[in-house]
Amino acid sequence: MSDVLELNRPVAAVGVGQTPFTSTDKSPTYVEMLQRSASEALDSASLSIDDIDAVVLALAPEALMGVNHAERWCIENLGARDKPVLRIQTGGATGLSAVQAGFSHVASGLYDRVLVVGADRVRESGDAQKIFNKIWDPFYERPLPFTTITMIAMSAVRYMAKYGLTEKQMARVSVKAHHNGALNPNAHIRKEVSIEDVLDSRYLAWPIKLLDACPQSAGGCAVVLSSADAVKPEAQSPAWVTGISMAGESYFIGDRLEVSERGYDYGDAEALAVAAERAYAMAGITDPKSQIDAIETYASFTPVEVHNAEALGFADLGTAGPLFEEGFFDLDGEIPLNPSGGVICTNPISVTAMVRFVEAVLQVQGNAGAHQVEGAKTVVATGAGGSHQFFNVAVVTSEEPKK
Amino acid sequence: MSTTVEPLVVDQQWDLTYNHTADPVTAHFLRSLGEGKLLGIKCPVCERTLAPARPICDRDFCKTEGWVELGLTGTLELFTIMNLKIAGLPEPPYVLAYVKPDGSDTAIGGFLSGVDLSSFDDALTHLKVGAPTEIKFKDEREGRITDLYFQLAE
Amino acid sequence: MSEVRKKVRIVGIGEAGGAIPDPEASLETTIFAAASAALADAGLRRDDLDGIVLAASDQTDGRAISSMLTSGPAGAYLNDEINAASSPGHALALAWMQVLSGTHRRVLISSWGKASESTFGVQAAERLSAEPFYERDGGASALAAAAIQASVHRAGSGDPEKAARAAATLAARNNTTVTAEAVAASDYVASPLRSLEVPAEIDGAFSLLLERADLGSEGVDIGGIGWRSDIGRLGERSLGRLEHLDHAVADAYGRAGIDDPGGQVDTWYLHDYTPDAEILAYAPFGVCAAGDALDLALEGSPKVNPDGGSLRGEAPFGGPLRKVLEATRAIRAGSAGRAVAHLTTGFAGQFQTAVVLGAKS
């Protein structure tokens, strides 16, 4: 990995869009959601599709929405005929990987304005978990009940055994998430819950209960990235992407049992910590707790918010559970985590990680409305995908990078 | 929108069969399961013993070599009590577990049986990370990962 | 950024698989073989990499998130990995941009396709990319689209009989084991295409190692890459006149400083998923004028697909990346100073990528 980074030129997000997330049966078609979120992002940047030089499409397993290589279908619906278009797929991390690809388009010097867009209809095929069985190794794992739920349940079991996390602490995470989601007009689930509600909800895979878990959502999301020269200061409020990187674990869950030099094993999120180290180094973040104002992190289940907070440097390993209980990560707490409600309220897989980025941008622009974190200047956004395997991290800030 | 129209739904079926070729390492591991033997394979660089066996060590980016026969005792490393019905998989509740066989540096996934699941709280007094576990073979084997299953040691 | 920093080189290539399926090769071992060969070719180790870019197609591979299992064999452990799942040409373009951005010094690109994994043939998986409301039930498939394109080309040439002869002659020349007469007499696979005019589907994995030029390794310069997309709906595309290919070529040539292709380019590796597709690419790449394309196909030229092109076998989805490897080999061997590789993905070349490789340095 490069020790010395010399970024060719800085990149900003100048427009964002999201459709209100819903269940699939109530949502428009896939291409309509792409169009709507693209339009909203362009409008928010006072741009038209003709101002866009290249497009990056975020699309996770197409089995979820039923059209193989759906990027082929999307071109006319995005007004992208004859443009450079490519599509990114990294499982759940796709939305932020797509932003990363868009960042490379602009930072390379080749393109000044890039549209990053995606959508999903997660119950199009009836049940996402049936499809998720097909992500696993065909020789060793498909006959077994591997799903995203069991994958995380097993990580939580290990975390609990190591550090003593309780189901009540997990429930407190869910209470925070649902409280924030109720304030977010775009969230899919907008209903507050109590600790008792969570503890009474049925087990999906112990210790994960229904209210510890994300929904299956439909919706679209888009971002316009711009070079500094192409920013329109009178019409746009740029959010500078000062750091962005990714790291991937070994695919095999069974290989991640020994405690690493950093002290991590499968109960923790080591590759997230590695990705964060890289993104923070790019962004000049040396002390996340004092330099970052809020966190939008990809966590489909409550225990994941806990170990993510640690991997991102906001708490020592094993200590975040009590911090959640104390309200440290609440919207009015020290460092709000998922002020949007996070993935526990909204999970439109192909774009979930892009929504984290968009929410971070909204925060530093001061446009997050009822879930705005007061005075947020620098926010970290993360994505996750695969067998809790792919992790990406981005840092956005309203402070323009020095020339 | 002023009018409500029933959405028009087009049903589409994906019906594809794939033949996934196993490499010789995976094939030998699976065939050995069929014979009631549990093997691991070594990485020549990091010297870990890997099970289930695979042809490449992704950390050292090299081919694995050197078969090791593993014992049928191990440690429960990960587990969950499944409570969700998924098409094609058993009726819940049941336990999915990763067990590290003695002599292996990695754990194998499989079903863990023999624990009374009528009360999860009671079951969880027995199901604990670190619990000694036995690896068992089914009487009728097919050379598939499901030829083996786990039980907590007495 | 300095001019040298703006140069990116191909410093390693690797390939695995072939026309005869290896019964002991899994998808993962095939990918590993290509990726490790590219590293060895460059004299580098996995630890030297800053990132991995894949072109992994789930439906071609039979996995719902193929890169979960294939990224490890491609070198991704703890690395910055991304999957440009739309085309191997896009994976190459993205890796190039990562290095130009200054965020990565060395990136390993891998693409593949294992025809022997799918019993039903790759066509059925490709078929699932047809638009679901109108075109899928109407029988759209990659082969049908290519055939329609061929018929549009031949009719539009003004001399369909000559065009058919040109296609058969071109196919015979590339195949070398059959005559043009035998090609023309082979069964229709999708009219007007004959079975000996379409590539066999084989197993293959391909890797390229890119490095920023100021690191000083020997390599083949990337002069420029351009990529553009057509719309999806076949009925609304202009299949015989590929404007998006014109523009992809213009992007690549512009970036590489090519304004006289005939004088500045020594060899073209064009994507001949059908002979007609190759012929349709001559004018956009400046190989010859549009009116001379059929004659060029009939006569042949040592400057076009000297390796025989895709006809004898192409790995599904990831296979076209092989053309970049061939172009690199030609420059390394000294038989070309500048070479161009052409990759397409999607029905009838919906996605077009042009790659200009510069001088060896």
Index terms:
heterotrimer, A: 403 residues, alpha/beta, Peroxisomal Thiolase, Chain A, domain 1, nine-stranded mixed sheet, 11 strands, globular, C: 361 residues, two-stranded antiparallel sheet
Short précis:
Chain A is α/β, with parallel strands linked by helices and 403 residues long. Chain A is built from twelve helices and eleven strands. Chain A has a nine-stranded mixed beta sheet with strand order 3-2-4-7-1-8-11-10-9. Chain A has a two-stranded antiparallel sheet with strand order 5-6.
Tell me the radius of gyration of chain C: 19 Å
Helix content of chain B: 10-25%
Radius of gyration of chain B (CA) equals 20 Å
Overall shape of chain C:
globular
Multimerization state:
heterotrimer
**How is the main sheet of chain C built?**
9 strands, mixed
Strand content of chain C is 15-25%
Walk across the major sheet of chain C and give the strand order.
3-2-4-7-1-8-11-10-9
The most extensive interface, with participating residues per chain, is:
A-C, 68 and 66 residues
Alpha-beta content class of chain C: alpha/beta
> Could you estimate the helical fraction of the residues of chain C in percent?
25-40%
Describe this structure in words.
The complex is a heterotrimer of chains A (403), B (154) and C (361). Chain A has 403 residues and is α/β, with parallel strands linked by helices. Chain A contains twelve helices and eleven strands. Chain A is globular and about 55 Å long. Helix content of chain B is 12%, strand content 31%. In chain B, strands 6-7-8-10-9 form a five-stranded mixed β-barrel. A three-stranded antiparallel β-sheet of chain B has the order 2-1-5, with helices on one face. A two-stranded antiparallel sheet of chain B has the order 3-4. The N and C termini of chain B lie far apart (65 Å). Chain C contains 13 helices and eleven strands. Chain C is globular, with a radius of gyration of 19 Å. The interface between A and C is large, with 68 and 66 residues.
